[in-house]
Amino acid sequence: MYKQFLRYTMPIVLLCGLAACTVGPDFRRDHMKIPDQWTEKVWKKPATAEQIAQATNDMKRWWEQFHDPLLNHLVEEAINNNYDLKTAGQRILSAQALRDKNAASWYPQLDGSAGYGYQTTSYTTSQTIAQNGNANNAAIRRYGATFSWQIDAFGQIRRMVQSQEEAVKVSIEERRSILLTMLSQLANNYVTLRNMQLRLRIADENVAIAQYVYNLAQKQYLEGTGTTLSTAQAQAELEAQRASREPIKTSITQITHAIDVLIGQVPGTTEALLKEEKPQPDLPPYPPSIPSIALANRPDVRMAERQYAMATANIGVAVSQLYPQFSIDMSAMPTTSFTSQMANIASLVSSSFINMSIPGLHGGRLSAQVKGAQADAEAARLQYRQTILNALKEVEDVIAAWGDDSEHVELLHKSKLSSQLALERAQKLYKAGLTGYLDVLTSQRTATTAANAEAVAILDRFQDAVNLFTALGAGWQGVDITKTELPVTLEQQNIWAKAIKQ
């Protein structure tokens, strides 16, 4: 009896021991040399570790550094209601479900069956059924169970689960990337909206100036000191300044529509609220950082690394196809019959097998799968490196723009003040009859150009701040991975699914 027990159990023990073997390479992080500091500088002295740590913590909710309550409210609405973000959350749940499905192959599979029916047997004589027949009727009951277990002898299931686990992480980083893109678009649209309102105010001021000059030209004409040419030129300039307001108003409306879509609302929902002119937001201070922290925070870099890990696990899946596969199958099917003569007949059919499947001739298909998986993994590693380079370039570009645009705003502000002073003097000279209208027109256009140029430069400064926060990978750290509900809840599933969590 003992020998018979060993004969049946030893193969199972050996197979379980083989399950500790996992073929294929394990993932190892690819180390790429990166600089310790950014090449572009905003501060003359390097930031201290404390300053970097404080800035990194503050950037978790960087939009609050603009000190604009409405912007904060819009961000919260977008986080909760943006449909692209919700869709990405569902992709995470889908990837997790597929991972759990693959992981279920590790465990034995047990299924039950049952049946009840009737069986009738009729005897015939000369191909004619007897009128009173001697039919034997039987009621048959069948029930049984089947058991199967795939032994993960060479780690095929393990590598599949590893690959899908990395796919889950990829979907998480993809959602974070979508979140940062959404935050960037929302903040950029908001600061652009406020800047367009500033430009509309500048346009209104230019209309008022043009109206004043036109009234002055008309007055001089009526007094005999002016000409019809000056009056016509002044009127043309007035109409041009009035016309310049309309494209700005259109842009403001379109921006409100874009913001509505980002927060998951029908375009026009918040138009009235957003069109209320408010002060410009505060400009956030420069956030000191270092390349290693930026790369560790950027979702695109993190996602590229997880894709490399997933591709590495897929090599193991392909290699495992070259090795034998083992499984255990068992079944038991008792059958009970009750005949019309009340006879009770019982039977039991059972079976148990240890199966082994060995790869044979496949024309090089299995080896080609391994080569393809290796090439995919190498491509993922190279793409990871390219993503790092792109990330470093993006940050360096924004830092360079931050410093240059700061100086640009200062110079344009001085230009605006000088052009406004020149316009005031030209108006006084024209009113006194000491200069012609052409000088006034030239000064007015110069002042208009300078004011608009300063407004554009101010917008560039705000967008530099938003773009730098985004390039540094900030903003996702304080947001939950998923805020979503499945269409069918656990309570709505069938009772068996809830009971045994199939």
Automatic annotation (TrEMBL):
Membrane topology: Lipid-anchor
Protein name: NodT family RND efflux system, outer membrane lipoprotein
Superkingdom of the organism of origin: Bacteria
Keywords in alphabetical order: Lipoprotein, Membrane, Palmitate, Transmembrane, Transmembrane beta strand
Signal peptide range in chain numbering: none
Alphabetized SUPFAM superfamilies for the sequence: Outer membrane efflux proteins (OEP) (SSF56954)
Principal subcellular localisation of the protein: membrane
Family: Belongs to the outer membrane factor (OMF) (TC 1.B.17) family.
Compartment(s): Cell membrane
One cellular-component annotation, GO: plasma membrane
GO MF annotation list: efflux transmembrane transporter activity
PROSITE patterns from the UniProt entry: PROKAR_LIPOPROTEIN
